Every structure is written in C-alpha cells, then in structure tokens.
Amino acid sequence: MTFLRRHGWIGGLLALLGLLLVATRLIQPNFGASGLESLGRSALPFALATAAQAVVVIAGGVDLSIASMMAVASVTAAVMMAAGVDTALVVPAVLCLGLVMGAINGALIVLTRVPDIVVTLAMLFVWEGVALLILNAPGGRADPALRSLIIGGVTLPGLPEAWTIWFPKGVVVLALVIAVIWVPLRRSKLGLSIYAVGSDPLAAFRSGVAIGPTRVAAYALAGLFAAIGGLALTMSTGIGEPIPGPYLLASVAAVVLGGVVLGGGRGGLLGPIIAVFILRLVRLDLTLLAVDPNVTTIIEGTIMVVVVMMGGLLAAKGRR
Amino acid sequence: MSDTGNPNVSDRISLIVRDYPILPLVILLFMLIAALEVMRPGIVNERWMANTIKFAIPLAMLAACQTLTMLTGGIDLSAGVAATVTAFVMATQVSILGTPGAILIALVPAILIGLVNGFGIGICRVHPLIMTLGTGLIATGCLQVYQRFVIATGSSVPDILSWLGTGLTGGVPNALLLFLPFAALLIWGQRRTGFGRLLYAMGDNERAARLAGVRGWQVYLALYALSGLVAGVTGLLYVGLIKAPSLSLVAPLMLPSVAAAVIGGTSIFGGRGGYAGTVLGALILTVLGTMLTLLQMPEGARRILFGAIILAVTAIYLRLTRDS
Questions:
Q1: Is the CB of A118 less than 8 angstroms away from the CB of B262?
Q2: Is it the case that residue A264 has pLDDT exceeding 50?
Q3: Is the pLDDT reported for residue B184 higher than 90?
Q4: Cβ distance B216 to B42 under 8 Å?
Q5: How far apart are the first and last CA of chain A?
C-alpha cells in the first residue's frame, strides 16, 4: 500500500501511457516498429530538455534558458563535425560545454543573488546570441555513425531481429543517459543535497549542506542534460539549428505533469520523462486522427492546465 | 541617522537610493542617452525622442501586467498572447462590426484569459508561471483555429488606432494621450487605493493578508482579469503602431516586458516595487535597443549584450536597494 501511495503518480502515468499506446494501435492498426522508432527519436530532445528542467526544479529553481543552451550545443556539435573533428572528440567537448554553460547560469544566480527566473531569462538571450554567433543559419552536419545511434530499432547479436527491432534506439539512448548520470547521482551525497536545498534551503544550510555549490551543481547538471538534448537534436535532424525550439514550454509542462513540485524538493526524473512520452503520444494520436494541428495545441494546453489545477486543488484539500 | 562627521560614502549612497529608488534608473537612462549622442552626434533630437517614446509605450504597458502581478509574487506570461489575440480579433472584425464594436468584442478574450488565470491561481492555487504559460498556449491554439475561419475576411487597422499608435501632434506622440492617464492611474492606484495596497500586502505576506481578512481569490481574480484587460489594450495600441496584424504580433515584447519590470526594481517575489520604475525600465530597454542597433554588431552579439545588460542592471540595482 505504501508502495502504491509513494509511486501512485508514476503508476497512473504509466497506465495512461499504456492506454495511449493501445489507442494508437487501434487508431492506426499498422502502427508498429517504425511508428515507435519515430516516436522515440522525436521525443528524445524533449525528454532530455525535461530531465534538465526537472533537476533544476527539484533544486528549487527554474531554468528558462534550456532551449537556448540546447541550440548552442546543437550548433557546436554540427560545426565541429562539419569541420571534420573526430566524433570521439566532439561528444565529450559538447558535454563539457553543457556543464560549463549550466555552471555559469548557476554561478551567476548564486553570486548576484538575483532571482533565478530573472538570471535564466537574461541568459536565454545570451545563449541564443552565442548560438547565432557560432552558426548564423541552420547548417553544419552530423556524423552518420553518430546518427545511426538513435535511428532505427535495437538489434542484439544472438536474438532474432524480429524480437528486438520494435524497441527504438532513441529510448535506449535515453535510458542509458539517465542510468549513467542521474541514478548514481541521486544516491550520492550531492543528489541528497539537491533535494535538501530544494525542499528547505534554511534547514539544508543548518544541516551543513553547502547551498551555493549545490545549486551551481544542479544548474551544471541541467546544462549537461541540455547539451545531450542539443546533441540529440543534431543527431536526429543531421544539421545544427541556432534558433531555439519549443522546448521551454514543453519541458515545464512535462515536469509539472510528471509530478515534480514547482518550488522544489519532490519528484524524480522518471515521472517527467513518462509525461514527455504521454504528451508526444497525444500529439501523435491527434495527428493520426487527422485533427487540425492547431486544435492539438489547444488540447495539449488544456490537459496541462487541467492537470495542474486538479493537482493544486488536491494539495489544498490535503493541507486542510 | 546620526552624522558621525566622517560618513561612509557608500552608506550615504545606499540611503539616498533607498529613499528614492527611481533615482539610479533616471541617471542610467540619461547616461545611455549621453552615450548614444557620443556614438552618433546629432541623433538625439526631437524626432528620435518621439520615436523612442512611441516604441517604449507598448512595452511599458505590457510591463504593467508584469508589474501588477509581480507585486503579488506572480507573473503573467500570457500577457503577450492576450495582446496578440485582441489585436488580431479586432483587425479581423472591423469590417463586420465597425470600429467600436470590434474593439469591445476583441477585449473579451483578453479578459477571459485573465479570468481563467485568476481562477487557476486564486482558487486552484496553481503556480502563476505554469498557469499563465498554459493559458497562453491554449489561447495561441485558439487564435490559430480562429484564423482559419476569418482567412477570407481579411484584416484592417482602423484609422483611429493607427492615429493613436503612430501619429504625432506637434512632435508629441498621440499615444501619450492614452499612456499618461494610464500611468498616472496606476502610480496613483498602487499606493492610494485599497486594491493597490492589497496587492502589496498579498505579495509581502500572503498568510498575514489572509488572516487580516483579505479574500485572496477575489484579489487574484480581479488582478489577473485587469492584467488581461491591460494586455488587450496594449495589443490594440501596438497593432496601431505596427499596422500588420499577425499571429505573433506582440510575442517579441513578452520577455522584454518581464525585463522592464525587473530592471524597474519590482521584486519578482512580490511586495516591492512600483510602476514608475517599470516605465523607466521600458525606456531604458528601448534606448538600449537603439544603441545595440547602431553598434552594427552581428545579431548574436547584440542578443548577448542585451542579456548581459539586463542581468548587470538588475544585480547592481538589487545590491543598491537591498536593506541590510
């Protein structure tokens, strides 16, 4: 019972995801490996942007500059690969760049003591400008070997292809990224500090958590996820795109749907990422039903607003 | 405050700034104008001033939505969309309903957006950032669907609005006719009316305000409806200035409007600031925009400078006015 209560939100999200997958299959009977593949690939940048936003929100902040940082990472990767730099060098370089960008955001917030919304709003312009300076118009190229990492389905040696091909590589990459970066971190002292700072900075401070460095670390981590998201963007489109995509709104929506409380201290990365897939599936289903894409925007917005309003009412009831 | 004979200069400055928080902003504005004159001698003339004021007014009005909501610790990210909706609906309905009817009908969706915001924030206790992002998203979708239905009617901007938006009378922008009473009302209202003081009270300490008998949800409902209305009027004025209604008309003003309120010294956590600073913030941002255009730098470098300056000004201003 406690398991259900603790993981009720994620359970509900998973059930919803399952229902939506079944609905998709009903709407489009030949929805299969290729449909899942394109879903996984298109959701990857959204999922990574959401992971980035979730880390910051858990630490009690919000980052409006994530989409711009993704653009910087995307153009850097595309320009480096177009210049013929070895891919084995490009990837770590872009990841470091993400860490540095995020750390700059965090350091500015801690040092200037300006509210994080304002700092990241200003940095949104700055990173957008950096991306435009690196690449003025969409261009560059992506290494085909790198692209093949997220295109297509999984093939495992020894197993018949038909068994594994339906599992999209994009999802595997996402799971690997989360497993390598977030899972060990959450168990570590730093992860605990991030939750503590988000939950109650004063209590965290009095328990000996270094608040400033923890927040910088949280933003740096968000920068890292954003950089991987930008890399994924370049990998799936094959070019670098200096104009930031619609990832800010989408990431905040998915974070809230995923059960991370704005204000910090609660939630994880799993819920928001499931929420990303739910939102993408809703969009896909509506497209398959030949609904006007603009109506799709309305429905998405309404889902988001209604869910957060219900959540708010429930929380208010619980407090009373 | 006893004068000890050897007063610390920085203490003195911070005291003066705390008593007159507008002062540094005025100084910054004049410094920027002086720098502009040095960069391109002769540019600061009557025509330039009229032009700057013309473009600063819509920004300052949209920033009024941010200032009012920030006083209670909120933010209104749907203001840009509400303004665009009003402008677009008005422009497409003019040929059917006539100018007054079109203006009235166009303000309805803006107020509706505000009421939904107020309902979500005041009654369902949703974070204002999320609520207004969501309603902005929904309104954008509705606007796109609406565009489908009116694609045949075409759009036009009534003469009265373009007169108000772009016209000059004796070198003075006509938009001031709308803006001066508006700004005066807000600056008077924020300190001298019950509603204005309620905003400060809610932003300073919501629980205390509630315990003192304030019905929070009524304040939020009225506040966000007012914010929607102001955004709608801004849209009408802005479409008179730009004269080309589109689905992303006011979007470029959205983030600068937040920046104008923040530079003007309104705390994003509520309870501090006021509209006078916001007006100066909007002027500063507009002059800054001209300056960055004059520098003939690549677009990217201009955005970097814009962001860096917003951050620097806010950080310095916060340091100067922080009580400690």
A1: yes
A2: yes
A3: yes
A4: no
A5: 23
Q: What is the pLDDT of residues B161-183, one digit of tens each?
A: 888 888 888 888 888 989 999 99
CB pairs under 8 A between A and B: 150
Task: Tokens for B19, please give them.
Answer: 């008593």
Could you tell me the pLDDT band of residue A156, with boundaries at 50, 70 and 90?
A: low
CA pair distance B247, A247, nearest whole angstrom: 20
Residue B2 predicted with pLDDT over 70 = no
Q: Does residue B158 have a pLDDT over 50?
A: yes
Structure tokens, A86? 């070895």
DSSP class of residue A168?
Answer: B
Contact: B124, A312; criterion CB under 8 Å: yes
Per DSSP, A139 falls in state B
Asked if the C-beta of B112 comes within 8 angstroms of chain A's C-beta atoms, the answer is no
CB spacing of A126 vs B307 below 8 angstroms = yes
Q: Among A254, A249, A276, which residue's Cα sits nearest to residue A17?
A: A276
Quote the DSSP letter at residue A289.
Answer: T
A297/B255 touch (CB, cutoff 8 Å), yes or no: no
Nearest to B300 among A132, A263, A315 (CB): A132
d(CA B259, CA B253): 10
- Best mutation target among A286, A308, A310, A320 (most B Cβ atoms within 10 Å) is A308
- The verdict on a CB contact (< 8 Å) between B130 and A294 is no
Chain A environment of B304 (Cβ under 8 Å): 125-126, 129-130, 133
Least Cα distance to A54 among A246, A231, A253, A237 occurs for A253
Nearest to B29 by CA among B318, B284, B320, B288: B284
pTM of the model: 0.83
Report which of B18, B32, B50, B59 is spatially closest to residue B253, judged by C-alpha positions.
B59
